[in-house]
Amino acid sequence: MSSTYTLDQLLPGQSGRVTRVGGEGALRRRLMDMGLVAGVDVMLLKRAPLGDPLEYKLRGYHLSLRKSEAQTIQVDLQ
Amino acid sequence: MAAQTLTIALAGNPNVGKSTLFNALTGSRQHVGNWPGKTVEKKEGFFQLGGWNTQVVDLPGTYSLAAFSVEERIARDYVIQEHPDVVVAVVDASNLERNLYLVTQFIELEMPLILVLNMSDMAHNRGIRIDPKQLSVALGGTPVVETVGSRGTGLEALKATLERVIKQGQSAPAVQLDYGEELEAELSKLEAEIASVGALAEQGKPRWLALKLLENDAEVVAAVRKMGCSSLLDAASEMIDRITESSGEDPETLITSARYSFVARTVSGAVTRPETFMRTRSDRVDSIVTHKIWGLPIFLAMMWLVFQLTANVSAPYLDWTDSLINGPLARGIQALLMLFGLHGTWVESLVIDGIVAGVGGVLVFVPVLLFLYTAIAVLEDSGYMARAAFVMDRLMRSIGLNGKSFLPLLIGFGCTVPAVYATRTLEHENDRKLTAFIATFMSCGARLPVYAIFGAAFFGAAAGNLVFSLYILGILIALATGIVAKRTIYRNAPPQPFVLELPPYRMPTPRNLVTHVWERTSGFVRKAATVILSCSIAIWLLMAIPTHAGVGEFNAVAPEDSLFGTVSQVIAPVFAPAGFGNWQSAGSLLTGFLAKEVIIGSMSQIYVGGSEAIASEDENLPTLGEEISGIVTSFAQATVLTAQEFINIIPRTINLIPVFSVPEAQFLPATEEEEDTGPLSQALMNSFTPLAAVAFNVFVLLYVPCMAATTAMRHEFGTRMMAYQLAYTIVIAWVAAVLVYQIGSLLGIGTA
Ligand SMILES: Nc1nc2c(ncn2[C@@H]2O[C@H](COP(=O)(O)OP(=O)(O)OP(=O)(O)O)[C@@H](O)[C@H]2O)c(=O)[nH]1
């Protein structure tokens, strides 16, 4: 059984599989449009020098999210 | 058959090479403007395809066709309402998965489609193999063309495919996405109902409308409501509830997932990727550029470099342009007027002081903009701009802005005009507007001469403190404005997501740079010409018209007796609470709208008496040959000086650290520009108290940006935004100046 984390809790280099995208409205839609839907694998690459935002890799490209946005996405650790 | 016009639309994610393809297809036959009522750029062009005159429309780069961002709405409305004959979907072949997501939405729209796999060189380098035939089959027979836009490879194949598709009678891809049993069942019910309402046909195909209703798409829902089909809306919302209840997810989520599953299946059938995770060169660059420790210094260094380029390195060419216009050009026109016997008449004065000066006012910005746009294009095309936003977001967010706002604000210290245009790099319209709005408070280079003259006159060795405080005041007002705006006007605006793609680093291609830079710079010249010209002529007229009999004739009147003087006298009392309620100050401030450094020129003319004629009557005019060689040599000198300034960025940067003092390179002997400011200083000290002088400088810092910046504002954001800015800056400037003067007086500082 893997426990549930949110995307911002990954460590650099760690991957998770998205289980749920929370939030609402335009932000949620934007996240999903960028490919963050249930079942996709996402890896945290690094944090910005000031700790926020975060850089992820998914579907073969790099995406940056703010911590507050990453918190709305639930993942299972791999 | 030449009369027949075809229309094709280019669509795709941002940064996939759409503009490059657009330029390659249309060459110079293109027009750049804005989409009606939006600050989003619209590009249209023409080319000959077979026997058809073909119009190409470059749609804004978007990731989706949801109706959330302005760009998405524009792209979607265009396709639905204008029915282009073919949509050419440009995708980045090295990043197929995310790119195809947008393509699925064009498939849903049932539009005739061609898929262009651009950047196929990048895909190849990364070991990604795409089978175009397989891909085409999976996408229901959509023709697939591979291109390398930056090299023009595949362009002929694209044209041939377009021609073939047109000749065969274009049809939509023969494929439907499968959204799962439950959704499909509800979809077909809804579809049937929609099909029975004839009036809905022009809003889109029934299946697409049904999908959008289930996605609860705000625009489609509103459109259907307007048609009075509320039963349809009720049915849809019941379905949404039912689906959400039974599957635990709302239809919007299910539909998005279904699109991505379709993409994943398509990609896995047609694409082979290298097994091992390759660490690309781009990754290595990135690990330095956004490094925990180096990230910020590198960012600051980049920004400093761009600032130096626009503020100092462009200066020699700026001076050259200026002297070209006011020297040979003005003299040439004067000679021409003399031929027509107009020498010494008001016509000559109008042409030289009004028109030529006005044209000059536009053209002097060209060198600055060329440098700015080159720098921006390099930053954007290389992929650094997105990293800059990544690195700075945290800081800028605390003042309600976005990481990308930093650059325009910094450029504002050089010149407000390029700063306004630099806001184009921001994604969201609100951020763009706010950043441009407050960029004017960054004290630009043209304001410095004013501070310097006043500082030297009133504070001697302590002049630096005045200058420094003014810069800080500008920054504080900008920040306060930003914070207040976020709390008030933008209070109800939804928070802008910072969901930002970080594209791989790429070498910018010169051809692309040149087109970008040329497009944008010429855009400014076209837009600015009329406004700046009319302002110059208006001020000239004011100065030329005498207000009462006996004080002089048209175009031969002292400033205080002209209409200009009268207007200044009327305005002057407004500034009394700020300590400078004389007409001379008011008048200089009026001319400051032309360009802020003009304030000093006006003041010396008013206080000391003008003595700056271009060429006095009996001076020996240079011959044409001399003029030309003069232009050429001064251009060569400007080029050398530019190189010198470029090199001097290094010592100048090192010298920022107090203990160092590295000499700057000097290729040419310095020409002493003797500016005799003694009499002016004396006159200023006679008519200003030190406190009033400070208040005056505060006003100069904050009041309306010059007309060129105002024009840029209108060009980018429309007349209303421009008017807001004018009003706001005047009020702020007045309040700040009055506060300085009144508080200072109360405390008894600098009143004597
Ligand atoms: N390697 C490579 N680079 C390309 C190719 N096509 C375009 N580029 C480069 O990619 C960059 C982006 O190209 P643009 O044409 O500005 O992209 P766009 O899609 O119009 O971008 P937006 O204006 O942001 O929507 C430029 O530096 C191009 O020179 C290609 O096929 N291969």
Can you tell me the CATH architecture of chain A? Answer: Roll
Helix fraction of chain B, binned, reads 55-70%
Q: Tell me roughly what share of residues is in helical segments of chain A.
A: 10-25%
Strand order of the largest sheet of chain B: 2-3-4-1-5-6-8
Mean pLDDT of chain B: 83
Supply the helix-strand structural class of chain B. alpha/beta
| Number of distinct beta strands of chain A | 6
* β-strand amount of chain B: 5-15%
Overall number of strands of chain B = 12
Helix and strand arrangement:
The complex is a heterodimer of chains A (78) and B (752).
Chain A (H helix, E strand, L loop, with lengths): L3 E3 L8 E7 L3 H9 L7 E7 L6 E5 L2 E5 L1 H4 L2 E5 L1
Antiparallel strand pairs in A: 1-6, 2-3, 2-6, 3-4, 4-5
Chain B lengths: L4 E8 L5 H9 L3 E5 L6 E9 L2 E7 L11 H13 L3 E7 L3 H13 L4 E6 L1 H6 L3 E2 L1 H7 L5 E3 L8 H13 L13 H15 L10 H10 L2 H9 L3 H18 L3 H20 E2 L8 H9 L5 H19 L1 H25 L6 H18 L1 H18 L1 H14 L8 H6 L4 H7 L6 H11 L8 H12 L3 H25 L12 E2 L8 H35 L7 E2 L2 E2 L5 H9 L11 H9 L6 H12 L14 H31 L23 H10 L2 H13 L4 H11 L1 H29 L5
Parallel strand pairs in B: 1-4, 1-5, 5-6, 6-8
Antiparallel strand pairs in B: 2-3, 3-4, 7-9, 11-12
Helix pairs in contact in B: 3-11, 5-11, 7-8, 7-10, 8-10, 13-16, 13-27, 14-15, 14-16, 14-27, 15-23, 16-23, 19-20, 19-30, 20-22, 21-22, 21-28, 21-29, 22-29, 23-30, 24-25, 25-26, 26-28, 29-31, 30-31
Bound molecules: guanosine-5'-triphosphate.
Guanosine-5'-triphosphate binds next to helix 1 and helix 4 of chain B.
